[in-house]
Design goal:
By secondary structure, the chain is of the alpha/beta class. It has seven helices and twelve strands. Strands 1, 4, 5, 6, 7, 10, 11 and 12 form an eight-stranded mixed β-sheet that branches. Strands 2-3 form a two-stranded antiparallel sheet. A two-stranded antiparallel ribbon has the order 8-9. α5 packs across α6. The protein binds cytidine-5'-triphosphate and magnesium ion.
Length: 222
């Protein structure tokens, strides 16, 4: 079965700051975009990345020789619109789609391999998941704690998330509101979403502190 990966990379990185869109920030000399494309390049037949309009040509240069054919499209104003823009150019032969955020450049490739294997084995939707380490509480608008959530039934999910093409397309066409991941759109259709073990190294780079941690991890393998 033919597999493609979509890498949404069109965000501005407001929480990280610094001017340059997050995906084009360097981590130990290599962009987060290139590192994230390389996470999935080994287990797919092609990669489609969605980037800010002004960064289209820079992305083509950045992604040369990733070992897999890459198409660059211009993303939208939300992550969901960026994924949709990439889905619009998905080759007709593709049967399985991975979606991997450019904000998770250190996810081990083995997780992508496991996600693809689970979709090949028949799961319509698969997400990497980790147990939650912190104690979680609900708060009211003034920040006062209103309760403690039972952690036992909670996981934090990561990318790459994998889908049968038909399920992902249907989920995006049916989307009535904005979701922060693709699995949420599939869940909304009542289609089961399966989990496989995620990896702590695949943490999402959101703030300057995350960049420091990523560069420290890369210290030994940059
Ligand atoms: N993304 C995208 N198009 C958007 C917004 C986000 O493709 N309009 C992508 C980001 O580039 C990122 C992923 O979705 O790879 C997850 O988003 P997030 O971590 O929130 O990145 P940003 O939106 O760039 O960051 P922030 O929310 O801090 O502005
Ligand atoms: Mg965002």
């Amino acid at each position: 079965m033919t597999v493609a990966a979509i890498v949404p990379a069109a965000g501005s990185g407001q929480r990280l700051g610094g001017g340059t869109p997050k995906a084009f920030r360097l981590l130990a000399g290599t962009t987060m975009l290139r590192r994230s494309a390389e996470v999935v390049a080994g287990c797919v037949d092609s990669v489609i990345v969605a980037v800010p309009a002004r960064w289209h040509d820079a992305a083509i240069v950045d992604l040369a020789d990733t070992g897999c054919p890459v198409t660059v499209v211009v993303g939208g104003s939300t992550r969901q619109e960026s994924v949709l823009a990439a889905l619009a150019v998905l080759p007709p032969s593709v049967e399985i789609v991975l979606v991997h955020d450019a904000a998770r450049p250190l996810m081990p490739s083995a997780v992508g391999v496991a996600v693809v294997a689970a979709v090949r084995a028949g799961a319509p939707a698969v997400v990497p998941a980790l147990s939650v380490a912190d104690t979680l509480k609900t708060v009211n608008t003034s920040g006062r704690v209103t309760g403690t959530v039972d952690r036992a039934g909670l996981v934090a999910v990561q990318t790459p998330q994998g889908f049968s093409r038909e399920v992902l397309m249907r989920a995006h066409r049916a989307a009535s509101s904005t979701a922060t991941d693709d699995a949420a759109l599939v869940e909304a259709l009542g289609i089961p979403v399966h989990t496989i073990p995620g990896d702590p190294a695949g943490f999402k780079i959101t703030t300057p502190c995350d960049v420091v941690m990523a560069e420290a991890l890369l210290g030994g393998r940059a």
